[in-house]
Amino acid sequence: MKIMTTVGGSSGALFATLLMGMSKKYNVELSDQKNITTMFAEGVEAMKKRGKADLGEKTMLDVLIPVSKELQKLSDKEDVKHIAEKIKEVAEKGMLSTKNLIATKGRASFLGERAKGHIDPGARSSQLAIEAICNTIINT
């Protein structure tokens, strides 16, 4: 997968893991919100296993896990644009939540207390990707 070989650091491998985890259900109908929600949740779980990380450890999972949980809560009867707006909010909140955490995983874990006051770069890149997808949905 191109993303794994071209994106630097561990982010490439982790984003590739997310996408490969999602693709295990490649033959499902993508117009069904439940299918998309399940695919995303499976991708996030694969990423958690590969990175041996979880919520609250100042990683991209601080964005992706809350987004996955929010998708599971939202009804498939809701307007897709409303869902996209809500997911954007959840992603931003997750990203901002990393600012005052001490990293326990990844390169930032070596910074200890010095990582406090800074948003995790993986969380920011995850938030930006989700925001771009949601904006595409909203503006379509």
UniProtKB/TrEMBL annotation:
Boundaries of every DhaL domain copy: 1-135
Q: Which InterPro entries match?
A: DhaK_L_YcgS, DhaL_dom, DhaL_dom_sf, Dihydroxyacetone_Kinase
Q: Which GO terms describe its cellular component?
A: cytosol
- Alphabetical GO biological process terms: glycerol catabolic process
A Pfam family matched by this chain, by name? Dak2
Q: Does the keyword Cell wall biogenesis/degradation apply?
A: no
Recall the GO molecular function terms of this protein's record: glycerone kinase activity
Q: Does the keyword Nuclease apply?
A: no
Kindly state which keywords UniProt assigns to this record, in alphabetical order: Kinase, Transferase
Q: What is the protein's name according to its record?
A: DhaL domain-containing protein
